[in-house]
Specification:
- 36% of the residues lie in helices and 27% in strands.
- It is an alpha+beta fold and 392 residues long.
- The chain has a 7-stranded mixed β-sheet with strand order 6-5-15-16-17-14-18. Strands 8-2-1-12-21-20 form a 6-stranded mixed β-sheet. The protein has a 3-stranded antiparallel β-sheet with strand order 3-7-4.
- A hairpin with a 2-residue loop joins strand 10 and strand 11.
- Helix 1 packs parallel to helix 4, helix 1 packs parallel to helix 11 and helix 2 crosses helix 11.
- The longest helix is centred in the last third of the chain and has 31 residues.
Amino acid sequence: MRQAIICGGGIAGLGAAIGLARNGWSVDVYERSPTIREIGAGIFVKGNALRVLESFGVIDAIRGDCVALAEARTLDREGRLLQRRLLRDTTSIWNVKRELLIRALCDRATSLGARVHTDSPVDAIEARGAIRVRGEIHQAELVIAADGVSSLARRALALDEPVRPPSSGAIRLLVSRTAPEKDDMVREFWSGRLRVGVCPCTPTEAFCYFIAPLDDQRGMQTPIDRDYWSARFPKLAAEGLFARAYAAGGVHHPYPFVRAVSWVKGRVALLGDAAHALPPTLGQGAGLSLMNGLLLSDYVSARSDVPEALTAWQGAWRWVADRTQTWSRRYDWITSEWPRSAYPLRNAVIWAIGKSSRVNSYMRIADRVDAPGHTLLPSAYFLAPLRDESPA
């Protein structure tokens, strides 16, 4: 039986464990934390990730306690519409509690025979396929480093590529779902350099995110500064959102951005945030991780030469993540770095992006990936007319 080691028990690592185990590999997952858990609130699971989860046999485990979104709206501080996207078929988005998704992935991986070792920090890794955990060497035919933004593997194997530090960050939390969140839609409000997203996550909870530049001390404060946010988003203040968010607390994280010279070296592959962490503006953190994990597992399972298979996998699919990173950063720039003097023009730009199905098909290329089928869905799936609202 072919053997694989996975460093990291998050979404990327557990997804890869499922992909490999169902292809007959013996899989060991090493997680540094004492338990498999996900700190956070909600997470957007888009069409490419949903196809992977269905292929993995995980979709039913999350279906009953999440929200399948019907549309996405971008609005100004007063609630006036800037952009509207209808969500259906290939453009589906589910909003899922992170802990539910992690639990479902872990349960499926272990049911297929993967062994998950918690409290097992990896403190060394070599391109020949060896790792060291608490002084003990473990070796396998394949090592997958799904060890996050600060990846030990990426640094140890000299795969880091210098990038510009993040300029924005987000506070994420869950609040009770009330009348303003009754509809199954994500609403994102823009005001100057700030953004607030509100989206039902379960029948009783809503996922919220508060985005501000890192040089905005009041915008980064947790619990949130209710007066500060209320003054900038009067529509949401009237809905009582900021009182609920203040009580919930939340955690602030800067937007990560990771680029690697290569995703592969010898028998080691980088996966998930270790390879391509990106701002969440396109909602593809989980999607890229899951689809690349499935594709990687299929490539190495179909070839006897692991380094050759990893090189072929990267050559065929890395471009999707690269383009998604580029566009996620561009979209974040519109919020956090757009010149103040040109804010009125920004509303028209947001509307134009939303109006162009062809632009959306290009920038949201990851949504079109059918990883189980190793193909891209035709762009025609994404060219249905959008609602023709004019910018405020």
